[in-house]
Amino acid sequence: MTPAEHLALPTIADVREGVIASKIAAHIGDLEKNIASAWARDRKMSEARGRFDWKTMFEVCINPEKAKAVRLQSEDRDRDVCTMCGDMCALKTHARAFEDGE
Fold first, then answer.
1. Which of 2, 15, 38, 86 lies at a CB distance of 3.0 to 4.6 Å from 30, suitable for a disulfide?
2. What is the pTM of this model?
3. How far from 33 is each of 4, 21, 44, 60, 73, CA to CA, in Å?
4. Where are the domains positioned within the chain?
């Protein structure tokens, strides 16, 4: 399936997008089947996210090119925060809460 499905002939970009969507769906299926390597990949991503280790996140994600592009387009691209949340980053807030409590 591609974004152009039944509307036009797909472009190379449409086919790539369709393949990536299929890979994401397959990964979810692997998690549901309890395949260890799928869980290990998700754990590695979660651990990298917790450290704001963008290099590892890009290596582990299914579509590194898009992930890098999204990060570079963010106003927070040079900050040590979540690209989606900025200063409201749940991971940073959690870390601050534990720092304040000690």
1. 38
2. 0.76
3. 31, 19, 19, 20, 35
4. 12-101
